[in-house]
# Entry
Amino acid sequence: MKNVPTLFEWAGDQQTFDALFKNFYDKVLKDDLLGEVFRNMSPEHVKHVSHFVAEVFGGEKLYSQEGGSHAKMIGKHIGKMLTEEKRQRWVHLLLQTADEIGLKSDPEFRSAFVGYLEWGSRIAVINSQLTENTMQKAEPMPRWGWGETGGPYVPAGE
# Structure
């Protein structure tokens, strides 16, 4: 391919991400393990997560235009004390939802998709153990593509 599409383009469009996260959070709220964590989420939570992930995958910068940033997303996890069990359930339910809505299932896309979920959810668990957000406000939004991992983990602020 001469013009390799972004993960966002390959997945579909913003409606694809909106449907994925709407259906996913409907499942999360009914889940015995995760329901408690998300019970008091804001009415805008689903939209913000959808816009964040779509932007990370190369979609429009809707999350950033709404005043969001990587530091703000990190800040949402501070002090939540997430566990590995909760992280695994979150990833499992999101992958199950992806299958249910018919998200692209080719190996290359799913490899990149799962790679991002693993990377991002593990960072969320690490940050959830903190009491304050040490990420600089000007930290750029992550960008995810067809195989990059972003390099070795370095805690924010180092």
